[in-house]
Amino acid sequence: MRSLLLNVNSLKIANYFTDDFRQPRTARIFFQGLVLYTFVKILFLWKISAAMVQYHNLPSPGSLFGKILLLPTILAERNIDGFYAAALVILALAFVLKPYYIIRLLFAYITFNLYVINLPLSNGSGIVLFMLSIWCILMGRYPSITIKGYDDVQKMIFNLGLVLCQLQIVNVYLVSGLDKLLSRTWRSGEAFAYVRHLDYYYNPVLPNVLDGSTWNLILSWCTILFELLFVVFVWSKRTRLPILAIGVVFNLFIWIVLSIPDFALLMTLSFVIFLRDDDFKKLKKRIRL
Amino acid sequence: MNNHPPGSSIKEKLGIAACVLILVHILICLLVIVFPQRMVHSNVFTSTYRSLMVVGPFFYESRIKSSSHLQVKFYSNGKWASIGETRMESFREYKRMPWRYDLLIRNDFEEYVLHQIKSLKNKDFDSVKKSKPFRELNQFIIGQHNQSAIDSVSLQHYIKVYLPESQSFRYDTIFAYTYSPHEIAPAKR
């Protein structure tokens, strides 16, 4: 009996990672979303980044490995406009082409160098984008391996990338939720009183929302609970979509009230990786109705 | 009798290997979150893991308690003119035009350079004005206001801390420098 159970479990595990490419449509849409996000971000960054490079020295590595890794950064130091123009062309290709490994590798290479070049302008979204782009390399599918047995390796790598990508997002909420739970300022609701007085972040579009201590306490605990519950609920079939919907509202709040649009947009976009291919079919049907 | 198709054992092994990888990854992530951060950052592997795999938290306590400000004044044609706080002006503009995300990015650079200057060990101005972040800040300010005939610049960097008990603010000056911009070497030649 025991050996039978073990056998069933091991088969299930094997099935999950090697049977097929899990959620290929979702993975593709997710990647395209990241590419589009980077494209738009570059359009906003370009002028300011070009001005910054006039008086800010970009890193210049000494080792050969560092030089290869930061080649676009070295080129950007000489010609920032050339770097951004080339990056936009590669991003446009990445958006339209099939999920080739090489194009995903190039995308990760660009996001890494974009992060390094714009480190003084970064707010956390740069490193999240880079890590997601790394996992996207694993979710490539072309050139496809047709040799029997080896195609399982390709499927396993794809599915591994998908899970690692999901875990990357979950970790952001886990570490953030725990940090808030351990902080007296957040538990007491005082955090929102502070946020209300952040001169360069707080946008009073919702008047009186952060005025009262009761509201602050409620909002504080909603934030803590959402971040911690996300870690658990996003894996369950019944709670996955509701928690993602709450997450969208949560990020909309960060975007509008806390004035961090790029981070909020990236986190909202990252929720796509938790969707299933069926969700898109259902959505299509609903739109038709 | 074997019901598995040929090659299925390799398939299973691959699946189990992936599962083990994921479990190890989760375990390391939990360890770098739970363990004291000083301990985590003392080791290259765990430090890298903490910085890349477990990104955040972003809205931590010290970040939300205060905001950093820079007051700029220029002396030219025999009088001082207050430029005020360009970051505040950019943010006000952004609130009017929320699609102008670039206005927020511009502010981030000032914040970054101010933080770098604040972190300098030697606070003596002769040493500070030779430092890379100060030279960058000087060039950034002069460039932003496009003023060439400036005799002197006055910079006051202060931190505004909100005190919820009294619903008031405390202002802590980090530095206040008055200098001639011509004696500051360019940040980049």
Q: Mind explaining what this structure looks like?
A:
- The complex is a heterodimer of chains A (289) and B (189).
- Chain A has helices spanning 2-18, 24-53, 64-69, 71-78, 80-96, 101-117, 125-138, 150-181, 184-187, 190-196, 213-233, 240-256, 261-270, 277-288.
- Chain A has 289 residues and is mainly α.
- The mean pLDDT of chain A is 92.
- Chain B has a four-stranded antiparallel sheet.
- With 189 residues, chain B is an alpha+beta fold.
- Chain B contains eight helices and four strands, in the order ααααββααααββ.
- In chain B, α1 (8-34) packs across α3.
- Chain B has helices at residues 8-34, 37-40, 44-52, 61-65, 86-96, 102-118, 125-128, 132-145; strands at 66-76, 79-84, 152-163, 168-179.
- Chains A and B meet through α1, α2, α7, α8 and α10 of A and α1, α4, α5, α6 and α8 of B.
Task: Trace the largest sheet of chain B across and list its strands.
Answer: 2-1-3-4
Number of strands of chain B: 4
Question: Which stretches of chain A are low in confidence, meaning pLDDT under 50 for 5 or more residues running?
Answer: none
What is the number of E strands of chain A? 0
End-to-end Cα distance of chain A, whole Å, is 49 Å
User: Helix content range of the residues of chain A, please?
Assistant: over 70%
Q: Which two protein chains have the largest interface (Cβ within 8 Å of the partner's Cβ), and how many residues from each?
A: A-B, 65 and 63 residues
Major β-sheet profile of chain A: none
How would you state the average pLDDT of chain B, rounded? 89
